Structure formats: structure tokens, C-alpha cells
Sequence to fold (212 residues):
Amino acid sequence: MEVFDQNGNLDSDVQEVLYELGNAGVGMASATIGRILGVRVALATPKVIPVGERTSQVLRELMQQDNVGIWMKFLEPMKGSVLFILKQSFVYDVVEKMTESRYEGNALYEEEIAFSAVKEFANMLAAAYTKAIGKYTGIRIFMSPSMLVLDKERVSLGEILQNQGTDTKKAIWVETSFRLLEKEGDETCGLGRVVMLPDAAAVQLFAKAFGL
Fold:
């Protein structure tokens, strides 16, 4: 089936598949975060759009807002990537919960125990995300955490995707944000979002798994 129509719009069935996968993947990853911190996590409605110039601009803006990015690359036969964009203060909280010590600023990356915790956290997110998508599609999916992107570092979406063998003109942006619901009833919004960037070939694999 064709992922895009003649006007460059996504097929409605494909959009629905990506919507479901975005929810499933982020839901499982969020459950992992919730277990670490002992809180409940709520998800926003996923956005599914073709990658465009505005998308790259949004990504660059996000990475200049004291956020930490964790890039994860799809391994063969898939192509594309997933980016977890997390508030730096939120990453501090996760690392503190994992290490029982508080690390902030450069210490988060310079102290071996803190950096190991960040990498372990990234691996847990990757495992949860791929497990959910694999369960929904029946496809064995593997991902490799490829790098951390620190706050205020400018990121070119085109360069990232091209380096991973993905055609930016055929990539799709699937974004889901989440917030924490604490025991006291407090709600913390804007803590993070997850962006899945599969290319058209990967999307066709997903669609085929759903019988499209």
C-alpha cells in the first residue's frame, strides 16, 4: 500500500496504525518510568504527521529548553529512530531514585555512576518501547541507544536521520507527550515527549502486520 497520497498526505489507515503504535510504545515506556519513581503517568493524544521543515525547527527549539534527548536507532530490517525528550530536572530525579544520590549539571554526565544510570535508564526505555510495538505487530524489533543530546545543543533532524540511513522526505513524526500524576493529587505537565521517526519502508512493515 502507499503510505503517502499524491498530495503528500498520510493514508488514513496508516495514520491510525502509527497512532496506536505511538500510544502502545510510549505507554509501556511510561509504565517503566512510573515504576522507577513510584508515580502514575498519563499520556497525551499522539500526533502523526509527515516530517517537514517546521518539524526540524520544533525539534531544535525543544532541545534548547533545558531538555535531555536520548536517541535510539532502529536496527535492521527497520530504519528510523526514536527520540525521548526529557526535562533535565526530571532526569535528575530519575538518576537520584536509581543511585540514591543527587547529580545535577555536568555531574550527570561526568560522574561514572550517574552516567551509567542514565544509560541504564535509556536501555530500559528502549526495551519497553520495542516490547510494546513488537507485541502489537508481531515483528521482532531491536533498537540501540545511540547517543545523548544535551540541553541547548542544536540538532539537525535531517543530519540525524540521514546518518541512520533514513530518507527525511519519507520519514514520519509520531509524537506523544506525558505527565506525572502524583499521590497527593498534584500533576506535573511537560516532563517529556517521545518522537518516533520511522521511514516509509518501516511504516509499510507496520501496516502489513495490521493486515493493510
Remarks:
- The chain has a mean pLDDT of 76.
- The first strand starts at residue 40 and ends at 43.
- The first helix runs from residue 12 to 37.
